[in-house]
Each structure stands twice: as structure tokens, then as C-alpha cells.
Amino acid sequence: MAKNLRIKAARAMRDMTQKDLAEAVGVTRQTMNAIEKGDYNPTIKLCIAICKVLGKSLDELFWEEEI
Amino acid sequence: MKLFNKCKLDERQLLLRGNIYYQGLGIISSLLIVNFYIKTFFNLNWVYGDWDYLLILFIGITFICIRLTFCDIYPLTSIRYKIFFFFTGIYGIGILLFIAYLLFSNQTSFIIDNQISSIGGMVLFCTMYTAIFIGYLIKLFYDKYKNDMEDE
Fold first, then answer.
1. What is the ipTM of this complex?
2. How many CB atoms lie within 10 A of CB B138?
3. Which of B74, B81, B70, B84 lies closest to B129, judged by CA?
4. pTM for the complete prediction?
5. Can you tell me the distance from the alpha carbon of B118 to that of B112, in angstroms, rounded to the nearest whole number?
6. Smallest Cα–Cα separation from A11: which of A63, A51, A65, A41?
7. Which of B15, B68, B150, B151 has the highest number of chain A CBs within 10 A, making it the mutation to test binding with A?
């Protein structure tokens, strides 16, 4: 799977570390790292939680990138 | 049940843990079947007594423990898991050293009557304990030096 750089960018805009974001959504830092690297597909529930914390929509963070 | 359900894993950890347990069960089942065929059709008792079942079970447990460690299921910084891993190391290495002394002083033997003796079984058992501890140490150093952390 491709890396999810949009989550990383959105996180950086809010000046949050991976650990901060992970704690905010209730997962471990390793899980958040796996999501950003594209090694793990989060459930819709977790996707929504990430979107809420970062103030973005599902499309903005998780929709497929156009080539 | 809530009293026993103190473990809080996230969805990724739960999924991985389930897969690892499934793989461990597969390994144990396969080894048991192989062991059955070896003993029944080849009439080969490769280890003394019932050590074969214990060893097969512990091979599965060792695989599960090492995989859980490397998949970040255990929080390695937690004092509870530190105690667990150090206990496995102290027990495994300590008993191995004692048995090594017995073996090198010819007080016992690894193989007796063409089968692994009970001492030999104990050596294998303790080797697996030690392997769990070494796996923990490798993961600890790997996490420390690997460029896994984000740029802060």
C-alpha cells in the first residue's frame, strides 16, 4: 500500500507528533506509524476518529490519490 | 470477565495477535501430527518420556512470544513485560549454564540410548526461553536505533 502522506501533513499542520495523534484517537504510536506508512488499513471507525482530531474529511485524508 | 480483561490493545494489535495465535496453533498442530507419524510409522522415540509434547508446545509458545514482541503487541517499556522477559532470560540462561556444567563434567549426557535424554529436553526447553529473551533484546535495540520515529 502507498504511504499516507496526507495524514502526516495534516498532523504537521496541527503541530502534533505521531504519539500525540495516536493518543488522541486511542491507538499506539506504532499503529499510527503503520497507517502513515501504508502498512495497515484502519477501520472506518478509526478513520473517522483521525479525521475528527485533524479537522479534515474522510476524502481529504483517505480517498485514493489521483495519478 | 471484566476483572480479567485488563489488556487494552488497539484494532491493529488485536488483528495481529489473533493472526499470530492462529499461526502458533498451526505450528503446534503440524508438529504434533509429524510427531505422531514419526512415533507410529517409523517407531522412533526421538526424546525420552513425554518431553516431545512439551517441546512441541513450547516451540509454539516461543514462536508466538517472539512474533508478538516483533509486532509491537507487548509494550516493551511496561514494567510488567520487562519483568516477564528478564525472568525468561534469567531462567533460561541460568539453567543452561548449570546443565552445561553437568554435561561438560560428564555427569550426564544429551543423548542416551539413541534418544534425547530428559536433560537434553531441558536444554532445548531452556534454549527456547533464552530465544524469547534474545528476541526481546533484539527488538529493544532495533527500536532504539532504527529510524522509525518521525522527524520532530
1. 0.84
2. 13
3. B84
4. 0.83
5. 9
6. A51
7. B150
